Amino acid sequence: MPNQATASGRILVVDDQPANLRVVSSLLSRHGYEVVTASDGAEALAMLPELRPDLVLLDMLMPNMDGFTLLGEIKQNPDLLRLPVVFLTVAQDRELLLRAFDAGAVDYVTKPFMPEELLARVNAHVGLKQTRDRLERIARERQELVNLVAHDLKNPLSSIWFASDMLMKGETKPERVPRYHRMIHESAEDALGYIRRYLETQDTSRRPDAVRQASALRDVVDWLVDRYALQFEDRGVLLQARAPDGPAMVAIDTLVLRQVAENLVTNAIKYAPQSNVDISLRSGGAGFWQLLIEDRGPGIARDLQHALFRPFQRLAHAGTDDGRSSGLGLSLAKQIIVNLGGQLWYEDREGGGARFIIELPAFIGEPDAEADDASDDAT
After folding, report:
1. C-alpha 293: how far from chain center
2. I need a labelling partner for 376 at 20 to 30 A (CA). Which of 3, 32, 124, 357 fits?
3. Phi, psi of 279 (to 5 degrees)
4. Parallel, antiparallel, or unpaired for β 215-216 and 239-242?
């Protein structure tokens, strides 16, 4: 069985000659590589999916499954397609070497080999592979960040658009004008807050989870009503809230909880546009609080509920999908809540409709000063 990979990388050496395996393994091990050996192609093929080496040194001519056959199997597997393979061969035949490159080998070393040459080629190809992996990981992380920012900016920008559109129509009741102005201002502040938060999460010295953070659920409910009540009234329906006395403190950053709850409210606006929406609080299990967001829309069909929290899953009802949703909202919301020790789930509402429940651990003690400052910035 292979040991844990070192910083230098993991090499799979495939050769039917035990002496060759010993010599190559000894050389590479002395220079910091983890080396795993296989005596034929079939054995190597069985190892590869779990082993995931940085490089394969492969004897070209072996009994049973030879190097060309194994290389062909590797290139047919999407998970192994980009695995670099270097042939070890006594062959000097030009046609055979060209065939090796055509089959997907990145290099070859002739036997008997010079230790310096083999080591130099291994270092070069492992370095290239690890650099490529690192760049691809950075690209994925940046794309994920772009997706997060784009998704979470959608809600405050939609509120800005709604309020500005109502003002531009010139039909707004005078008493509502200050509320629309405040909605525009606060939504812009939220958008900037989201961007600032994402930038801070890229700096490990300023990660928000390094402090004890707390949110008052009642304040978040009041914020949701203040932010979205006019949009519901514009549709001829109501956003209604019920909350017990007391703040009901939970262990989560206020801005993050707003984002999660806001996603659920805007989903209700989109998928149940003619329904009232109810927001309520209740005690969950021991040491937990629950925030419920419920509507009387069509709900989620049972055959779709299993996919509800998958990334990029858009569960649109007829006539409700405008094509602008990324399908990230519920997946990201659940991921955030679970990472904080809570749960987010869906239930069919009695009498029809949808019910989403956010359950979070109750906060005990006093939040850190840094957490208080962050909460103040979010208001």
Report:
1. 24
2. 357
3. -115, 130
4. unpaired
pLDDT, one tens digit per residue, over 43-54 is 999 999 999 999
Rounded Cα–Cα distance for residues 101 and 195 (Å): 48
pLDDT tens digits for range 334-367: 888 998 899 999 999 999 999 999 999 999 876 5
**What is the spatial order of strands in the sheet that 239-242 belongs to?**
239-242, 277-283, 288-295, 354-361, 343-348
pLDDT of residue 187: 86
Nearest to 153 by CA among 200, 184, 193, 185: 193
Q: CB of 107 within 8 A of CB of 121?
A: yes
Distances (CA, A) of 309 to 208, 306, 335: 24, 8, 9
Alpha carbon 311 to its chain's center: 8
Q: Is the C-alpha dihedral spanning 137, 138, 139, 143 positive or negative?
A: positive
pLDDT over 80 (residue 185) = yes
The two three-digit tokens of residue 319, written as one number: 């006539």
Cα of first residue to Cα of last residue in the chain, in angstroms, is 56
